[in-house]
């Protein structure tokens, strides 16, 4: 059992998703996550123990894995602005403290996000990745010249963020939407869940200068180049994936074609609350593409995701 300290609760974990950043750590590519650390930050659970007033044992919560300023009197400028995803003092569940790939996990009560008590565990565990897509699209709306539903949109990558972004874009009325994904199993899942056009970028690369809005949900050298080639002059690229941490970008085209390149990091508390409501209302569909497995199958699940053997963009583990 985790140690319970004042202001914290201990959650009995009901479900936890496997994130791309967990895959990076599994490969040894994330120096912030050292071996021996319990990973997992896409979670839902019931309070088993509480050292915080107003948070009763037995109630179910999801949460913000980013642990940010908790004292309003000394909050950093970003928390004061409501942009707590950029908190200068942030720490994180599954990075700087043990995460949710376990039966129990401790977390500050201030990081908990309320949810309907009858919400299915697998749906609630999608709050964190779905909020990442939600936040990215909301940032993009400020930069697009025309309304989103008028735009030709390209999503690069059909993993969890790409899938959730595609479902949200479809809900928001985007009619001209292409998703590129090399994994044939995932292309089938995308088409079934979202009904959008899908393509293998190795066989059918997206047309050049054809899209008003491009979301790179992979973030590799190849996909960054693809994003710049595909976006129209005056268009917007939202860079959300971080498969490669560094690569060259076409600064000449960025400048001469007046392209807007945006980065995004996670979500705010407001995004998480809005996303819980959206998931509960079915904005992201019936979520039948999500695969649930026992926590004991976690090691094999990482292998299956790494080798492209799972059709699902999201595996949720159940302790």
Question: What does this 3D model show about the protein?
Answer:
The protein is an alpha/beta fold and 319 residues long. The chain folds into 2 domains: 148 residues, Quinone Oxidoreductase, Chain A, domain 1 (Alpha-Beta Complex); 134 residues, Rossmann fold, CATH 3.40.50. Helices cover 29% and strands 24% of the residues. It has 10 helices and 15 strands. Strands 1, 2, 3, 6, 7, 14 and 15 form a 7-stranded mixed sheet that branches. The protein has a 6-stranded parallel sheet with strand order 10-9-8-11-12-13, with helices on both faces. Strands 4-5 form a two-stranded antiparallel sheet. Strand 14, helix 10 and strand 15 form a beta-alpha-beta unit. Helix 4 packs across helix 5 and helix 4 packs across helix 9. The longest helix is centred in the middle third of the chain and has 15 residues. It is globular, with a radius of gyration of 19 Å. The mean pLDDT is 95.
User: Low-confidence segments, ≥5 residues, pLDDT <50?
Assistant: none
Structure class: alpha/beta
Order of helices and strands: EHEEEHEEEHHEHEHEEHEHEHEHE
Strand content: 15-25%
CATH arch. level architecture of the largest domain: Alpha-Beta Complex
Radius of gyration: 19 Å
Mean pLDDT over the full residue set = 95
Determine the fraction of residues in helical runs and give it as a percent range.
25-40%
Biggest sheet statistics: 7 strands, mixed
Classify the oligomer: single chain
| The CATH class of the largest domain | Alpha Beta
How many extended strands? 15
CATH superfamily of the largest domain: Medium-chain alcohol dehydrogenases, catalytic domain
Assign the CATH topology of the largest domain. Quinone Oxidoreductase, Chain A, domain 1
Distance between the termini: 14 Å
- H/I helix tally: 10
**Outline type:** globular
- Our count of domains comes out at 2
